[in-house]
Amino acid sequence: MTRNDDLELVVEESNLDAFHEECGVFGVYGHPEAANLVYLGLYALQHRGQESAGIVSSNRKSLIAHRGMGLVADIFDSSIINRLEGTSAIGHNRYSTQGSTTIKNCQPLVVEYARGGIALAHNGNLVNFAELRRQLENRGSIFQSSSDSEVIIHLIAASQAPTVAERVVEALAQIKGAYSLVVLTENEMIAVRDPFGFRPLVLGKLNDAVIVASETCALDLVRAEYIREIEPGEVIVASEAGIRSFKPFVPTSPRRCIFEYVYFARPDSLLFGRNVYQVRKQQGKALARECPADADIVVPVPDSGNAAALGYAEESGLPFEMALVRSHYVGRTFIEPRQSIRHFGVKLKFNPVSELLRDRRVVLIEDSLVRGTTLRKVIPMLRQAGAREVHMRIAAPPTTHSCFYGIDTPTREELLASTHSIDEIRRFITADSLGYLSWKGLYSFLDAERNGARGFCDACFTGEYPIDIPRERVAHQLRLFDASERANADEARR
Questions:
Q1: Distance from first CA to last CA of the chain, Å, rounded?
Q2: Tens of pLDDT along 212-229?
Q3: What confidence tens digit (pLDDT) does each residue in 401-427 have?
Q4: Topology (CATH) of 13-254
Q5: 257 counts as catalytic
Q6: pTM of the full structure
Q7: CATH class label, 270-493
Q8: Exactly one of 23, 106, 457, 460 is catalytic; which is it?
Q9: CA 260 to CA 48: how far, in whole Å?
């Protein structure tokens, strides 16, 4: 924390106590308003990253780029969009999983090399990033950013394959990890998804234009037709010759990220063949069957807990109430009054409705529990507003392991469930009871006979990683919560 006269600038703790969004990508080939469509697509994908955004367009002679820090609406205006001329464009929303939060790490990354210009937008995380970067630097490569995505650019540029698509494939064959990415040159757009399919990527069509996006909600906004999910290990090439698809990588069993259903994706998206809202509601129903509570009302921690809470309420027969209201206009930092307000950061984001809570026994539903610091403050707020009991229910299993496939997570030691029992966690968050969804309940949306859980990655719950994690990556997993820890220490001292 830093003081400035009578005011205090603090990092919003409720943003730190969560698995953070990854990134969002959007691409358009063959439309006269390509950049404008990408802008709208990024707007729909804003939930996947709020640190920075960028758009690169092609007018068939050169690549034109604009990138900036902050939200999409703050970075682009009509004059900038008009400058991004051409009939093809790609865009990116970023939340860093590898590399610092600076303008040099904003995407799409753009370079000029011997064979022309190339731009790349990447959602994911490269497990062997450090090893590949060392090899490239030993060969003389000079890096301009700390983003793992730049490794892909260097590998593409170093390839001697005859076509851009072949150079992209040759580069990605050297990579281990998660990637859903879009590549743009002066004359074509290429979309690729890693063989495990960790991160989502979908294909759409708008008249004769080809659209690719992280989620279908972005297609909906631009009124594009959803064609299908781009398959794990698939390469899509859009050019003047049309659109073609091929699968150059060794086939493997898909491992789609189950946390996309739990938290990341927008509830109106069709993801991995299912509507996200309906999956979360089904998980909430399973939670009610597994962890019933003697209570009066069901209340979600908005917004990610809404669908699961509705499912819990329907299954349990308890009334659903929006008794905790969230402000949607809170940034990652804010100025606190000199006269300190207890739990100011959480209170700025959430406010209880006393009239709905007074003398009620509450079932509080949250999508997941990471460090518990937010719930430790929310639950006393509910009691102060009149709640007689607060029974905490988590619509996911205990989060015990870090993610290395494109999600910003803390180290394993910082995950509360990795080192504490359920009763210890209950006492820490001050709940009257605590229940988690089981692993079986997590997959309650699947047909039992199909054993479809094998098609998902749930390493954050089980510790079973589909790709081996180098020891150096475990040691250097980003410590995202240092600011929160300092804030807690300062509060304790006060």
A1: 13
A2: 999 999 999 999 999 999
A3: 988 886 655 567 778 899 999 999 999
A4: Glutamine Phosphoribosylpyrophosphate, subunit 1, domain 1 (3.60.20)
A5: no
A6: 0.87
A7: alpha beta
A8: 23
A9: 10
